[in-house]
Write the structure tokens for this entry.
Amino acid sequence: MTTHMKAAVYRRYGPPSVITLQDLPRPVVGPNDVLIRVRAATVTSADWRIRSLSMPYGFATAGRLAFGVSAPRQPILGSELAGDIVKIGTAVRKFAVGDAVVAFTGAKLGAHAEYCRVSADAVIVHKPSALSYEMAAALPFGGTTALDFFRRGALRAGDRVLINGASGTVGSAMVQLAAQAGAEVSAVCSSANAEAMQRLGATHVIDYTRADFASGGRQYDMIVDTVGNAPYARVRAVLAARGRLLLVLATLPEMLRSPWVNIRSQHRVVAGPTSERVDDLQTLVDLAADGRFTPLIDSRFPFDAIAAAHARVDTGRKRGSVLITVSS
Ligand SMILES: NC(=O)c1ccc[n+]([C@@H]2O[C@H](COP(=O)([O-])OP(=O)(O)OC[C@H]3O[C@@H](n4cnc5c(N)ncnc54)[C@H](OP(=O)(O)O)[C@@H]3O)[C@@H](O)[C@H]2O)c1
């Protein structure tokens, strides 16, 4: 019986070329773990940030401490995947060998491999058969970020919501989920992505190469920034009374400033990491299974072209998610 697997490995921080496919031992399963044969995974903006240590301003030291000071501590990237359980630990009751699952490994990473170990108590749920492995693998990263920020920002039906960076993985999930919650969505993207945003539910589309949403006359109850160029000082004039600014991408100074804004103004700034919740993943799977949420897919790459997939993510221009087919 073979005990090895193919994995996309990096041993030093750098460009996509630091990723190579190597043979590694399969992860060993503890009593509470499951071993998943990975069918599909994605390369996300988090993989790009960690691989190249491109952290938002102010977070460079925290990034090294979290992921390895001189070299990566976890040599396998990838935080979302779908596949089949091939082994379970002795204490696992929720899952059985043969179950199809979708999982979000978050900062533990490890999804860019033929096999991935996940704790049965972590962010892992069953994959319904109506949902393909590829669609399932593209749910967690954008979807849980959207749900978590909308919960923290108290999204309500009827809110006028502007999403800056609407065509990315997080933005495109937010457009769909906000529209579905009954919000009126304005999507900020380049003109090439305008039609896709309307299909996902945006009422208004603003081309950032031609217009500045922050100096227009329209007011918003909620503004989401996934790009990093819409801090409070830029958008406060177009934030309605009791408006919320959700900084999915925030610099350290912006994060530190947010409590002051919350005390001194009628606005609220929400920033910080997404909390990864299994109930959010279940919600996304349920929505996707009956066609109410469809992750936007930018491109697909075979596993042995994963460095090219990283290069696509590095452009910062992908439209939705970049999928990797790990095994069929
Ligand atoms: N707080 C958290 O826990 C958390 C969680 C997840 C992600 N994040 C962060 O959120 C950010 C977005 O993640 P993502 O995965 O959605 O990124 P992504 O998919 O790589 O975003 C790419 C999109 O950004 C758009 N874009 C680029 N420049 C733009 C601009 N000036 N104005 C408007 N849109 C622009 C591009 O559209 P065009 O081609 O039209 O320019 C492209 O569609 C990342 O920096 C990530 O690190 C934070």
Remarks:
- The longest strand covers residues 33-43.
